[in-house]
Amino acid sequence: MSARGSPPVASCPYRLPPTAVALIHNGRVGKVKTVTVVIGPTPTPEGEEFKPSTPPAELNWDIWQGQSPATDFIDKRCHFTFRWWYEYAGGMMTDWGAHHVDIAQWAAAPDLPGPISVEPLGAHFPVPFDAHGNPTVHNKYNTARAFNVKVTFANGVEMFLVDKSPKAPEENGILFEGDKGTLYVNRTKITGSAADSMKDNPLPKGVVPPVAAVPIPHERHVINFLECTRTRALPKSDVWSHCRNLTTCHLANIALRLNRKLRWDASAQEIAGDAEANAMLKRTQRKGYEVV
């Protein structure tokens, strides 16, 4: 969950990321130098070939595909496993990356419109890709299973988006490294020198405001959204910050697929000096499903 606030109570795992952000903003690691976002392994086997079949009677396969390229029906292209095809999603980079990059940028680059560059350092794909970043095999999952992408911000922070890291205590979480300390956080733990500092130096009261005490995290978002329709306040997980966060994830995927460094112009919302990469920021609109 990426709600913009909740008190530092360890018994509630969804209160940990906002607490980590407050610690970073409170200077507990000093100046942030490096952020390692460990997104985790893809939870599906690699290499399996899928055979086309007839769509179930209740599914209009043409409508389901929408703007994406028309292809034969394969049940693994649908829910839940649509996530592992670039035609419909972005693999782990956008799946869990959406959550962790949110917290990472909120903590380390809160006032910036996005990164200035995105550079692929390594990747492993389950199928071959052509020189234009397109998969050449169409009956297997195709999103990157292993990856390392360096994201640089104008404030000097370097953020690494990885599937795993020997520096992190778990396979899913965020490690902040500053000139005065470290902090690791995910939905179950918060550790490091910055977390230890709370024992003798608690965070100031009110820096992490409370959220609804609801056990199911998605319901917190629903409650907050309904509250904001009445109060006209900005939701804790607002569209503006999440557009910036997901842009970073999508840029990382484009860099991986093309295997080259990208320069991002956030003011123009375009990849500078790279027409091929820039064209990948949006879908080719399939006839009959154009957005006008």
Report on the architecture of this protein:
The chain is of the alpha+beta class. The protein has a nine-stranded mixed beta sheet. α1 packs parallel to α4 (97-108) and α4 (97-108) crosses α7. Mean pLDDT is 92; it is low at 1-12. A hairpin with a 4-residue loop joins β6 and β7. Helices cover 26% and strands 15% of the residues. 33% of the residues are buried. The protein has one domain: 2-Layer Sandwich (Dihydrodipicolinate Reductase, domain 2). The protein is built from eight helices and nine strands.
Topology, please?
Elements: H1 16-25, E1 32-38, H2 61-65, H3 92-95, H4 97-108, E2 117-124, E3 146-152, E4 158-162, E5 173-178, E6 182-185, E7 190-191, H5 193-196, H6 217-231, H7 239-258, E8 262-265, E9 270-271, H8 275-279
Parallel strand pairs: 1-4
Antiparallel strand pairs: 1-5, 2-3, 2-8, 3-4, 5-6, 6-7, 8-9
Helix pairs in contact: 1-4, 4-7
